[in-house]
Write a structure and sequence with these properties.
The structure holds 2 protein chains of 2 kinds.
Chain A: H1 22-34, E1 40-44, H2 49-62, E2 66-69, E3 73-80, H3 89-94, H4 96-105, H5 108-118, E4 130-135, E5 140-144, E6 151-158, E7 174-176, E8 179-181, E9 184-185, E10 191-193, E11 199-204, E12 212-214, E13 223-231, H6 254-260, E14 275-276, H7 292-295, H8 298-308, E15 310-313, H9 319-334, E16 348-350, E17 357-358, E18 360-362, H10 370-379, H11 381-391, E19 395-405, E20 411-412, E21 423-429, E22 443-446, E23 469-473, E24 479-485, E25 490-493, E26 504-513
Antiparallel strand pairs in A: 1-11, 2-3, 3-4, 3-5, 4-13, 5-12, 6-11, 6-13, 7-10, 7-12, 8-9, 14-19, 15-24, 16-18, 17-20, 18-19, 19-26, 21-24, 21-26, 22-23, 22-25
Chain B: H1 5-14, H2 40-55, H3 58-77, H4 84-96, H5 107-123, H6 129-151, H7 157-172, H8 177-190, H9 199-209, H10 215-235, H11 248-260, H12 267-286, H13 294-310, H14 317-324
Helix pairs in contact in B: 2-3, 2-4, 3-4, 4-5, 4-6, 5-6, 6-7, 6-8, 7-8, 8-9, 8-10, 9-10, 10-11, 10-12, 11-12, 12-13, 13-14
Classes of the chains: A alpha+beta, B mainly alpha.
């Protein structure tokens, strides 16, 4: 049965009186209408302060948070706050002020005010939808547009430590992104709202436009918030419309949005063009680049790959070549890290759009740096022949990138390969920094969830063995991983915390496989480079 | 074939070490096993201790204490003797918790137990290479413990006697990287505990080994000498309170040692050189007729801090960001 606050006596009395004055509302409405890149608003001092202080105490004394980490977020969360209605009386008493806060947020006065200042139309009283999120050090939420179902307004009420001001340097800001066109956010955010105690930030959800993220919290401070949505009126409520609006991404998760993505569209970089391998290297020349331990044990490694579907090889590059690559990378690490798109040198591109991925990729420029050579190596016919020998599959076309994932900025979200058939996917980590757990940057492969009954907002909840993690690899210098990837497997590089010791660097090669060529008999006599 | 769930799942799940799914899974601590030790249990303890030395994480210390206690009882029942290194490692774990900031009500107990265990470890030292290494570790743990005591304002007669014991260990054995590292910690201690009678003895030891053939020993010896001269440069005028009072010649002498001490295995060496360069930049900025490029000095300091960070040094981001602004 839907929660209803209709019969409760004036739940809005815990809100500040100023909210309901004509002057306040017209001033706020004006600010929201002028906000860029889309209409968002900020109200400082939403609640009468003692009420929110009391609620905060109740939360920390009585509520358990669960740490959650997926490709798109890391945070500590409670279940839906609607659940507090179902608690036994004694337990409900312990959260009585929190109950008041929730009811005030969904009170008629509050909904009318939000509706008026945003121009969003009527909002549901019965469909409440909010939870508590505590972002502590390292927590973040990457770029998304919040479009799910009949959500109309997204809001965040900050319940930060009330006795000191939150320093914007601690992170945790709500950041808003402009769009290049519908559904394609730009790489860099253009506005940021640092949180403060008793502040409400909110915006109207506009499919394909309302892109935002939550900046990582960089320090040991609790960025606690009550976060939720106002929905369209439900059946039986005033303002209900029988046929719901058709949204750009109605009832699909961010994961599903990705599979709908058109890679060839403007704003999607790098262009994922699969091409034939390049000539230029003889098989013999591989010895200059690949460790002799690998080249001399190809038959054993192939056997291993055939059995396990994966190879993880340490010390993959020949030591002298790896030292040259490492030295070039270290020199780049010691320079100032480019943060905004405009800071990035022209030999690098920025992978986009950010609701799918963000990292730097090396453009081919004909120069003979070690990094360019490494990228060319992965695209060469000789290397593809090596892959053929290692995997007993016949690679056809390839797409190779040399990537840099910067701390505090970069990631890829989970995606499927986009092919109907298995492909070979190779990643060589050439990271120089010493990574440990807790700062992200790991490469993760997991089974795809296809249960139609799943809550679309929780699209990477692993509920059974079959949907679990298959590979999790922290960046390790000179480790090569190759897998034969099923079409429905998900893979991502986890967002690198600003507290990571340096960037993650890798070469990423995808190789289509000739149909029905998996597990072919490898005839060494055919292992030649044309 | 393929990276399919049925075929691949088992092997890969064993490699999972962190909570990366919705389920909260506590990570196991990954340690590097000490490959020079045949005894597997001891090797794990030593590997974990190396992690404690770099991270000073109370959780690791508690785990180590638990494991050391178990090993001690188990071997005692079997009438087996444990090596001196084991006792020193156990002592170091206990002393790392002898800090009221970590465990308010039991700090004294850990302190007493740790010092007792150090004494047991030192009793069985011999005149061999391994004992020289253990001496260095013991000296480091004693000095680390004295740092905590100083922070608490608890410098007692007992503390001074332990300081003498640490200096004896630094002086008496064949110098190795652990001894040189202990000397570096001793020099750091001087910033808060000056004057110390034994300082000259330690500096003499360091001077003898500043050109050691062993890279790690050379690094720590020069790092210690550089740090000593950095302090001395600032203290050459007893009233030194500003960069005007820093003795530039001694500062350059410090920087020369710190450059000699650079070593990828010693992240502290990059941090100390950066500190020396930042002091130098401050001095140059105050000089009216200086022709030196202060921007280059800052830039070099920044590179060394970034290098330390890349090599896994504890968080330096705040200072790096402030220098980049």
């Amino acid at each position: 049965m839907p929660h209803s606050i209709a019969n409760q006596a004036n739940p809005a009395r815990y809100l500040q009186d100023k909210l309901f004055t004509e002057d306040f509302q017209s001033s706020l409405k004006s600010k929201i209408s002028q906000a860029k890149p889309y209409n968002y608003g900020v109200i400082d001092g939403l609640f009468k302060e003692d009420v929110l202080r009391q609620a905060r105490d109740e939360i920390f004394e009585n509520i358990q948070f669960t740490e959650k980490e997926t490709d798109i977020y890391k945070l500590n969360q409670t279940g839906d706050l609607l659940n507090i209605d179902g608690l036994p009386e004694e337990e409900a008493k312990l959260l009585s002020t929190l109950h008041k806060v929730r009811d005030a947020l969904y009170s008629k006065e509050m909904r009318d005010m939000i509706s008026k200042v945003t121009g969003c139309g009527p909002l549901s009283a019965s469909k409440t939808d909010l939870s508590l999120n505590n972002y502590d050090k390292g927590c973040h939420l990457l770029t998304h547009d919040d479009v799910i179902g009949d959500r109309v307004i997204s809001f965040i009420l900050y319940v930060l430590p009330p006795d000191y001001k939150w320093d914007p340097k601690w992170g945790g800001a709500l950041r808003v992104y402009p769009t290049l066109r519908e559904g394609v956010p730009d790489t860099d955010y253009c506005g940021a709202v640092p949180p403060q105690f008793n502040q409400l930030s909110f915006f109207k959800i506009v499919p394909g436009h309302s892109f935002h993220d939550v900046e990582e919290v960089y320090v040991d401070q609790p960025r606690l918030s009550i976060q939720g949505w106002y929905h369209l009126p439900q059946e039986g409520e005033e303002g209900y419309v029988e046929t719901p609006r058709v949204d750009f991404h109605t009832e699909v998760s961010t994961m599903a949005q990705q599979s709908l993505a058109h890679y060839e569209c403007d704003g999607y970089y790098p262009a994922r063009d699969f091409v034939e391998a390049s000539a230029g290297l003889s098989l013999d020349a591989l010895k200059q680049f690949i460790s002799s331990d690998i080249l001399e044990n190809v038959d054993d490694l192939r056997k291993q790959f055939t059995e396990e579907g994966i190879l993880r090889l340490n010390d993959f590059l020949e030591p002298e070549f790896f030292a040259a690559v490492r030295s070039e990378i270290e020199e780049l690490e010691l320079q100032k890290c480019p943060i905004k798109k405009t800071d990035v040198p022209e030999e690098w591109g920025v992978a986009a759009p950010p609701h799918l991925r963000k990292y730097l990729y090396l453009r081919s420029n004909g120069q003979s740096t070690s990094l360019q050579m490494l990228k060319e190596l992965f695209s060469s016919r000789a290397f593809i022949r090596l892959i053929e020998r290692l995997t007993a599959c016949l690679p056809e076309q390839q797409f190779v990138e040399l990537r840099r994932f910067r701390p505090g900025i970069d990631y890829t979200l989970a995606s499927v390969s986009g092919f109907k058939e298995d492909i070979l996917e190779a990643v060589l980590s050439v990271t120089t920094a010493k990574f440990e757990d807790g700062v992200g940057g790991y490469d993760l492969v997991m089974g795809g969830g296809s249960d139609e009954n799943d809550d679309p907002a929780v699209y990477r909840e692993s509920k059974d063995e079959d949907g679990g993690v298959l590979l999790s690899a922290l960046p390790k210098p000179n480790e090569f991983i190759i897998i034969l990837r099923d079409p429905d497997l998900l893979r991502f590089i986890k967002y690198l915390s600003k507290n990571a010791p340096g960037s993650r660097w890798d070469v990423h090669g995808e190789y289509t496989v000739k149909p029905d060529s998996v597990n072919v008999e490898v005839d060494e006599s055919t292992m030649r480079v044309d | 074939m393929g990276i399919k769930r049925a075929a691949f799942g088992k092997a890969s799940k064993e490699k999972r070490t962190k909570p990366q799914t919705e389920e909260e899974v506590k990570p196991e601590i990954e340690i590097e096993i000490d490959g020079d030790v045949d005894d597997e249990e001891l090797s794990e303890v030593y590997g974990l201790f190396a992690k404690l030395q770099s991270e000073r994480d109370p959780k690791i210390a508690r785990g180590l204490i638990h494991e050391c206690d178990r090993l001690l009882r188990e071997r005692d029942e079997k009438d087996l003797t444990l090596p001196s290194k084991f006792h020193v490692v156990y002592a170091g774990s206990l002393l790392s918790l002898a800090d009221p900031a970590i465990i308010d009500n039991q700090a004294d107990e850990f302190r007493a137990a740790g010092l007792e265990r150090i004494a047991i470890g030192l009793e069985s030292l011999e005149e061999d290479t391994e004992s020289a290494i253990v001496s260095g570790i013991a000296a480091q743990e004693i000095i680390q413990f004295l740092h905590t005591q100083i922070e608490e304002g608890k410098v007692k007669t007992e503390s001074k006697s332990w300081l003498s014991k640490a200096v004896d260990l630094i002086k008496s054995k064949t110098v190795n990287s652990e001894i040189a590292k202990a000397a570096f910690k001793f020099v750091q201690l001087l910033e808060d505990l000056n004057p110390v009678d034994e300082t000259d003895d330690v500096i003499d030891v360091l001077k003898t080994h500043k050109e050691s053939d062993d890279d790690a020993t050379k690094s720590w010896a020069n790092c210690a000498l550089g740090t000593f001269y950095l302090n001395k440069a600032a203290q050459s005028d007893s009233s030194a309170e500003s960069v005007d009072d820093i003795n530039k010649d001694i500062l350059n002498q410090a920087i020369t040692h710190l450059r000699e001490g650079l070593n990828d295995e010693n992240t502290q060496s990059f941090v100390m050189l950066a500190e020396g360069l930042l002091q130098l930049a401050g001095v140059i900025e105050e000089e009216e007729d200086s022709t030196e490029d202060v921007g280059e000095v800052y830039s070099e300091a920044l590179r060394h801090l970034k290098k330390a960070q890349l090599l896994g040094h504890e968080d330096l981001r705040e200072i790096i960001e402030s220098l980049e602004e």
